[in-house]
């Protein structure tokens, strides 16, 4: 099974959208294997957004993600990265389809409520930024056989 990182950003936490967003992932069948509410430090934010360091919007990214609490989540499931990215919708919420998280809950690129890893490689790197190894759990769910066909 694949794992991915999701961040519910400060705008969504302040708007009390956390449970609505989490329930979408659980309803889809993704398994929560890591979850924490946290205030992100500037240093961790800069590490997370390191690939954007030379871009003009870097300072705004860091400033926003550290402006309030976030919820960091590790989700697990078949093709979790792609599934989560599809559920989130396009980065610019005004272009995101209705029914996606951004399409339903956001209006502005700078306040787009959620982050999700863009590849398996990014997910592995990002999970290590937000979670210690013992904070990401392995466990079985009885319902997995009802979610996945031919579960190995």
From TrEMBL:
- Mark the transmembrane ranges: none
State the UniProt keywords alphabetically: ATP-binding, Cytoplasm, Kinase, Magnesium, Metal-binding, Nucleotide metabolism, Nucleotide-binding, Phosphoprotein, Transferase
Q: Does the keyword Transmembrane apply?
A: no
Catalyses: a ribonucleoside 5'-diphosphate + ATP = a ribonucleoside 5'-triphosphate + ADP; a 2'-deoxyribonucleoside 5'-diphosphate + ATP = a 2'-deoxyribonucleoside 5'-triphosphate + ADP
Subcellular location, record wording = Cytoplasm
Q: List positions binding ATP.
A: 9, 57, 85, 91, 102, 112
Cofactor needs: Mg(2+)
Q: Name one GO biological process term.
A: GTP biosynthetic process
Q: Where is the active site?
A: 115 (pros-phosphohistidine intermediate)
**Out of the domains of life, which is the source?**
Bacteria
What Gene3D superfamilies does the database record attribute to this sequence? Nucleoside diphosphate kinase-like domain
Q: Domain Nucleoside diphosphate kinase-like, which positions?
A: 1-138
**EC number(s)?**
2.7.4.6
A Gene Ontology molecular function term for this protein is:
metal ion binding
Q: Which InterPro entries match?
A: NDK-like_dom, NDK-like_dom_sf, Nucleoside_diP_kinase, Nucleoside_diP_kinase_AS
Write down the NCBIfam families for this protein, in alphabetical order. PRK00668.1 (NF001908)
| Role, per record | Major role in the synthesis of nucleoside triphosphates other than ATP. The ATP gamma phosphate is transferred to the NDP beta phosphate via a ping-pong mechanism, using a phosphorylated active-site intermediate.
Q: How does it assemble?
A: Homotetramer.
This one is known as: Nucleoside diphosphate kinase
Source organism of the structure: Thermodesulfobium narugense DSM 14796
Whichever gene encodes this chain, its name is ndk
């Amino acid at each position: 099974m694949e794992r991915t990182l999701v961040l519910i950003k400060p705008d969504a936490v302040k708007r009390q959208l956390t449970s609505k967003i989490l329930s979408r992932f659980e309803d889809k069948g993704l398994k929560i294997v890591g979850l924490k509410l946290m205030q992100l430090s500037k240093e961790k934010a800069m590490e997370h957004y390191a690939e954007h360091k030379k871009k003009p919007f870097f300072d705004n990214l860091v400033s926003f993600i550290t402006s309030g609490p976030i919820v960091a989540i590790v989700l697990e499931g078949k093709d979790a990265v792609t599934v989560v990215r599809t559920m989130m919708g396009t980065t610019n919420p005004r272009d995101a389809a209705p029914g996606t998280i951004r399409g339903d809950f956001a209006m502005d690129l700078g306040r787009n409520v959620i982050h999700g890893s863009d590849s398996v490689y990014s997910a592995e790197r990002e999970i290590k930024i937000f979670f210690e190894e013992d904070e990401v759990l392995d466990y079985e769910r009885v319902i997995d056989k009802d979610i996945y066909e031919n579960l190995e």
